[in-house]
User: Fold this.
Amino acid sequence: MLTINNLEASYGGIRALRGISLHVKEREIVAVLGSNGAGKSTLLKTISAVVKPDSGEILLEGAPTPTIPYRVVEAGIVHVPEGRQIIANLTVYENLMIGCFLRKDKKQIQDDLEMVYSYFPRLKERTKQYGGLLSGGEQQMLALGRGLMAKPKVMMLDEPSLGLAPIIVNQIFEILTTINQEQGTTLLIVEQNAYKALSIAHRGYMMTTGTIEAEGDAQDLLKNENLKEIYLGQTKGN
Ligand SMILES: Nc1ncnc2c1ncn2[C@@H]1O[C@H](COP(=O)(O)OP(=O)(O)O)[C@@H](O)[C@H]1O
Ligand SMILES: [Mg+2]
Assistant:
């Protein structure tokens, strides 16, 4: 579905991605793990065309992805950014509608709204509430719902667990698994919370300072000694 070859990107001469290669198959959940500053967000921003790559290729179903962010969304890749980026003075409904403004199949939108509400009943209860008044967990749900409203082939999630209580993180990851199974949405999840991400992922990649250090099945990565070192601060099962 998504193939990245030797991707390099930098900020003002400082290289943040140093030759990243990875792939995500259709209907797969893939986790990219790495500590703060590893380049995870830069990777997603480069796929989204928000950051311009220095070299390398990004292929969606075998074809190079567009170089303009909104066209990347049209092509089927949606980015749920770090920190959710909910619009505080728009309602839950209006925030969700932002997710589908590029869609051509407008007739499907009502059905998809019902689909989003079925996964996130809390959003349905709060349809008319302003985004800024939601809790952190609800804002993350809204960000995911907004992403789903674009009907993506690949949904990329930047640290969905960040700043949320463990019980909410568990809920969100459970819903992501259900969405992957029921909607067939391919998921690329970037996380510092390695144990949590690997608990739902099929495969994973470990990233350190702009490079991929290890890759493999989620179960194998969980046994990787380096993973334990990097994430000593993270509580297992959290
Ligand atoms: N807008 C920016 N300008 C300059 N440097 C940046 C910018 N964004 C990120 N960086 C640098 O790029 C590296 C990777 O950052 P980032 O992709 O945000 O890592 P992660 O998401 O894994 O924490 C870091 O060294 C960071 O300081
Ligand atoms: Mg980041």
Observations:
- The longest strand covers residues 14-24.
- Residues 2-83+153-230 form a domain with the Rossmann fold fold (CATH 3.40.50.300).
- The beta strands are 2-11, 14-24, 29-33, 55-60, 63-64, 77-80, 154-158, 186-191, 203-208, 211-217.
- The chain has ten helices and ten strands.
